[in-house]
Specification:
Layout: E1 10-15, E2 21-22, E3 26-34, E4 40-46, E5 56-57, E6 61-66, E7 78-88, E8 97-103, E9 109-114, E10 120-121, E11 125-133, E12 139-145, E13 160-164, E14 169-179, E15 188-194
Parallel strand pairs: 2-8, 10-15
Antiparallel strand pairs: 1-3, 3-6, 4-5, 4-7, 7-8, 9-11, 11-13, 12-14, 14-15
């Protein structure tokens, strides 16, 4: 008897369990496919939908995949797509299934000034001006402190905020940023002489 099978297998893929962001070029794929007639035989993967990996035996469950070094991979930051296609045991190839994730492995950059970079102030309450830039994912958090080792809790960033020094003398404020992919910036700072 001959089994006639003209339909490719149904398929599904998730990157990092459908996370939105990553700073790691190697991701975990959750893979599933089914073919009721002849069964799923092989699968092939791609980062760009044009250059495909060699067909390999179908593996349900999870699979580690490089968006940098895998077929069609690149180091470029931004939205990255992982494509998968399946072949059943009759040779039918299913349509491509795709998932995407924001990939950013570059740290954000930021600056901070106190009272528009003034040298002196006669008030212990000062104004902080912050600016930042990020390669792809965007800055999500900032934290501040009076030293690089005593930074406070992460908070939503704002370009202007107030700061209260405890005493007169040379005061400094330090800032660190985090983008949506979890990359943290180097700590930046500014100082001012407080004389009330």
């Amino acid at each position: 008897a001959i089994i006639l099978d003209r339909q490719g297998p149904g398929c599904h893929i998730l990157v990092n369990e459908d996370d939105l962001y990553t700073n790691n070029g190697t991701v975990t794929l959750s893979i599933s496919a089914g073919d009721e007639i002849t069964g799923v035989g092989s699968m092939s993967l791609s980062n760009d939908g044009a250059s495909w990996s060699s067909w390999q035996a179908y593996q349900a469950g999870t699979l580690s995949w490089s968006m940098v070094n895998g077929s069609g991979g690149t180091v470029t930051n931004g939205y990255r797509f992982v494509h998968i296609r399946f072949m059943d045991n009759a040779g039918n190839i299913a349509g491509t299934s795709t998932d995407r994730i924001m990939y950013d492995d570059t740290i954000p950059q930021g600056t901070i000034t106190i009272n528009e970079a003034a040298t002196y102030t006669i008030s212990r309450q000062v104004r902080l001006n912050s600016s930042w830039a990020d390669n792809a994912a965007g800055v999500e958090y900032a934290r501040f402190g009076t030293s690089a080792g005593t930074l406070g809790q992460w908070e939503s960033p704002t370009t202007v905020r107030t700061w209260l020094f405890d005493a007169d003398g040379t005061g400094a404020v330090y800032m660190q940023l985090m983008d949506r992919c979890g990359n943290t910036s180097t700590v930046v700072s500014d100082s001012i002489v407080v004389d009330t």
